[in-house]
Design brief:
The protein is built from 29 helices and six strands. It is mainly alpha-helical and 664 residues long. The chain is extended.
Amino acid sequence: MALRSRADYFKHILAVTFTNKSTQEMKDRILAYLDGFANGRDNDLSEELRKELELDASTFQLYAQEAQAEILHKYSQFSISTIDAFFQKVIRSFTREAGLAGDYRLEVEQQPVMEEVIDNLIDELGTNEQLTKWVVDFANENLVNERAWDVRSSLIRFSEEIFKEEYREIEVEVEKITSVDNFFPDLLTKLRKRRFEFVKTVVAKAKEATEIIQQNGLTNDDFKYGGGGVYGWFQKIARITSVSDFNEKELGKRPLGDYQISKNFPSKDTAHAGLMMKLAEERLIPILLDLLEYREKNYKAAISADVALNNFYSFGLIIDISRKLKEYKEENGIMLLADAPRFLNGVIQDSDTPFIYEKVGSFYKNYLIDEFQDTSGLQWKNFLPLLTNGLDQGFPSMIVGDVKQAVYRWRGGDLNLLQQQVEMEVGAHRINTKELNHNYRSAEAVVSFNNQLFKSLANLVAAETGKTISTDAYHDVEQQLHKKETGFVSIEVINDEDDLKWRDVALQKVPGYLERLQGLGVALKDIAILVRKNKEGQQIVKYLLDYKKSDHAKKTNCHYEVVSNESLRLDGASSVNLLVSALRYLLNPEDAIARAQLGYEYARLHEAERPLTEVFAVGNQVDFENNLPEGFSKRKPTLKKMPLYELKVFQSESPHLKKCHSMS
């Protein structure tokens, strides 16, 4: 675009991505390509651009030189930005309209703010009876679910809910209705009444049917299907205690079909077939139909009330956290960056697009949005008027994204945007979709495997759910090959074996894979072990370090070193753990736990084969210290009196601990 329109047209183009690193990479790449074009260095891209622009080599080089010079001289107008930085720029132009003071602060990091907000919230406990109840209920649920007892940290994590767009869309309305006097007590009463009335009515109708059956001397044996027949069904429904007890599964299929026909009531062997069919026609089937009709009309509202009651404290907490955050922002004159999309949405919706440009001090014609699958609904609403304005004037824009990645909902991403909403709102006639289906990175086996796996899984999910969302999202999953390497894919399904859980079995298999790959000549730098959680990565690092010291390890031509954030942690280093254990023991030699920890850490480093029963036999202090380096035991009284830094002296008399010197 910049080369075609020449001069300083680049300042009318806004390229948006999601991280500062991506922004810098994009700038570096554009400038590197431009420098190559300007200095006559040909590559695939220069050839492609010359064809598209219909320029000869010398003219193309001249245009590139012009563009390069303009960008370097007007670098501040070289607009490649994160979406947050662009929104910040717009917000700063609308401080007066937003009612913000001249010295207001736009806070990028919300974590420190929320920590202070939660502290302010906790200060209200005891004086605010309703809030105290919410927090107590919240703490109780944490304890029941074996989560951390620290209610402060749990509340900080929970407060993230108020920044989600699902809540932001209704925040104003929620704030308005909850400000009414006695809102929460009244709502609680209504919800409990709705739940109680549903259970009471259903139980009453079912009991009426069971009493009719009992009064006529009938038992389960008289009914078709026995205890699983219509009498057993009425008995089960008469015992429900909650709305969810009458869900689809408990309702079953027979009440919707078999039980509505009188001839399906009696069993083959009953002597009361005539009576049963008459009772069914005149009394039982009408009760059944009445019960089903009542459930059809009221179940959705009742189960909603049930769910709302189970999460009532959450609702109350969210309202109070939102209230305290609003107070904090007003007192401190700040706006959170997380508030930007909603604020801008209000500004842009009610303003002409040229007015926005005028306030921002720039005029963009073309918008290029990268990683569009991470764009949230509100962010798209903010961009839509700007894109539409450019399109109306004949200036094209571009969005790049992968709808398959949107399922993860990073940053509030919505797969419906790429899948249908953009086309619907911009207009299908103004959209030209290009699928990037060429894989330049992966080997043949990997590409073929992915093509087959994800296509099959998408079809399976669609068949299972009865919805086409998976097949729509994965319709373009098949990729074209480019690399000539064959590649290799292997899958192994691991089940629990004897006393071992599948995780333990998987851990045991990792060293074998490493040994096999290294035996085939694969370098360690070409091997990556991927896990879902950091905790699992730490387990693999620890297992490989222990395996390396065991007799099972191949000492020649095989390495087991792992480079990761977890492997570089100080608390994962045996030498550091040994030193810390020694210091704890010096602090209190009578502490049996400190003694056992020191014995374990020392044995792990120097006596790996020693039985654990001996390692943890620490009752006798003399016997315990006999297993430690002699120099350490002898100088223990002196070491206890030394300052922390000078304790490193003991290493000179403890050769086993020499390698710890640098850590001391």
